[in-house]
Amino acid sequence: MPPKCIKISQSDTSQESIADEDIISDLPRNVIDCILGKMPIREAVRTSVLSEKWRFYYLTIAELIFDDNFCKQLQKFALVQNKCHILSEYELELKYQFDEIITRSLLLHPGRIEKFTVCVPNFNSTRVPNVNKWIQYLSRKNIKKLTLEYKKKDIVRHKLPPCFFSCLDLTYLKLRNFSFSPPSPEFKGFLYLDQLVLLGVHLVSNCFESFVSSCPVLQSIVLRGCSGVHHFSITGSKLQRLCIKADDELESISLENAPNLTEVSVAVDKVVIGLESNPNSDMVKFVDGLPRVEILRLNGKFLQLLAQTPVPPILSTSPVSLKIIELKGVNFTNFDEISAVVCLIRSAPNLQELHIEASTTELNQEQVSGCLKLLDCTAFPLSKLHLVKLTNISSFVPEFEFIQFLLFSSPSLATMSIMRGAPNS
What we know:
The protein is an alpha/beta fold and 425 residues long. It is 29% helix and 23% strand. It starts with 9 loop residues before the first helix and ends in a 5-residue tail after the last strand.
């Protein structure tokens, strides 16, 4: 049988040539920019050696991310450069490279910058001097998402420069360990800002309330470890999520002007108890300001604040949207805390999940135990509650009486999880 002849058609050769083509380089420029924006900044810069065409592509990345991964790579480079391994020289080299790379990336950037993230490592020397220059440059670039973080929490925090309030197109702002001063009277607000995250920020002259009121479309506020605020008055018709973890002494909180909140978390380390002129620190006013809340997270100290005024058996206005309650650090031998807990869960007719982390100390057991024994479990049934999770239980009598109260009050309860705490907790 004669051998078969293999014919190479023109279509085969054309397919071969297609396989050799640089498909990625022929992608639309906006797609290439998107790909580079998803890469670590170091890898994006390295694409400049691929070809003449790719030489300056990295300069137009709309998202500049100098995060922890960038810092780790920079630390390795600085260690190689410091051949003598002298700590002071290594620190200077790292600080110089950090300043130089970020400053040049900004100054050489010809296009728009939509997102800028910098995590300043823990330098032992003075603060990075170019931060204000970065903010000034970004204020002219219509920056939309800005993250500035100092990992080291110094006593004297970096003060934001006046040009910061010229970043009028911001939609997302995250600051860590800065000092936030009131803007000038000419400042009309961040009209597009919908997410605000402040971590370890010192708020000068109690400027937080006026700042929030100047951001009309805010949907989410996260405050952790901030100082300078003792009275929180939160406003915003668009606000849906609020998270406050206060280290300073909290005296009052008002949410009456934020009617659309659906998720609220409040935890405090210190509270001021016994203030007569404190109209916003009672359970009734706090819950009345949350008509649409679905998830509520509180800690024991804040419950003490809410229980300054007498707590009723059940609130007159029921939070009908409330489905999940999470409580941390609850002392089951503290009468005020337990009164607030019972009032809160009884007042939520559609409560489905209850999570409580106990932090019980052996005090006033008789008073709380007597109160729990007198509770009528049939008067206000928890008809929708199907999941209860209790953690760090220490075998105190009031804890078991509270468990008994939940069992008798919850006809639809399907799962109850109880985890005992450590013996020495």
